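step: validate -> pass
step: tokenize input -> pass
step: predict -> running
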Amino acid sequence: MDIFDRLESEVRSYCRSWPVVFNEARGSYIYDESGRGYLDFFAGAGALNYGHNHPELKSKLVEYLMSDSIVHSLDAYSTAKRDFLRTFGETILTPRGLDYKVQFPGPAGNNAVEAGLKLARKITGRETIVSFTNGFHGMTLGALSVTGNSMKRGGAGVPLNHAATMPFDNYMDGQTPDFLWLRSLLEDSGSGLDKPAAVIVEGVQGEGGINVASAEWLRGLAELCKEYEILLIVDDIQMGCGRTGPFFSFEEAGIEPDIVTLSKSISGYGLPMALTLFKRELDVWDPGEHNGTFRGPNPAFVTGTAALDTFWRDDALQTATVAKGKLMESRLSAIAEEHADTGAHVRGRGMARGLAFEQAEVADRVSQEAFERGLLVETSGPEDEVVKFLPPLTTSEEDLDRGLDIIAEATRAAVKVIQPA
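step: predict -> pass
step: emit ->
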């Protein structure tokens, strides 16, 4: 570990919870250099929806690289980009009736968010973006301005302007679904809220604590945005690509956002890639007005195409994800009931689930105990009070049960330490 302590920045985080050196990964397992396997319920923070080194995706990538095909192309045309766009249109956009243009803004989710915010301001000529309590959209300045976490915001070192925060669904004990709060601000010239360029929202808040927006709440938000000519941006970076069941987290609500951001699992293989999608009439960019060196990630185009071909030509993955999500909900609910005195309760949708506690100390201890038993999980929420589960969508029911058995054991051990008899 000396080389990491000596040379790597103190900003590193996950390695502090998992103090081993990893070197192999297959499917739902990752292995340290001693050969010990860990069941992965973290999945690259949602970047590995199809597991580690999926054989279909790996074979396409190796074949592409071994043929000396182009790797870096900025936004020049390439066969890999053409194949990805064609397949994305055929498998995702056309079946859902979505007439979106596709922008490749750079390699990461924050690039997709920055492009979406910038485009919304260019289209409307307005500055303010409305975001929501406990939302997370990235660590660059624009994305950070619409992120709720005070610790992350504090790292900016400068004022984070041109944003307004509103309560997310159920934030105020269920009193927000009718949007009277936002409507009154928009209609009152004394409210201090400038008419927004856009609203940015997650269908399920991942980093914020696995907080689920109801379909009714999302529909109400979409209707309000349309009424006041405010663009609606859905950040599906962590919850897209099938994490909640459907490809997009907002499909259940039956809405059509003006702008959608995707990253993490869109490459299918954990390779850097991001998309900003927007309605065709919103494509008002001038050539080169928004660019970046790594917006032509051809290896990611190849694995992304393979993932779409493998998993999204039919609804088998979606059906399996919903079923596995119900299994997770049932098992986690039993754990929560066993430890009701800790305030434990279950949140989530599909295969994005959270086990929340009143004390963050309990959640932290559960994650530590799980690691010692061979399971990787992280915590989320404003105080890290939620144990967060994002297993690969391809995880077998047997491995799901094994991981949930570990969580049951880890929770008992954690509660025994934190709340001894």
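step: describe -> The chain has two domains: 2-54+316-418, 58-311.
step: cleanup -> pass
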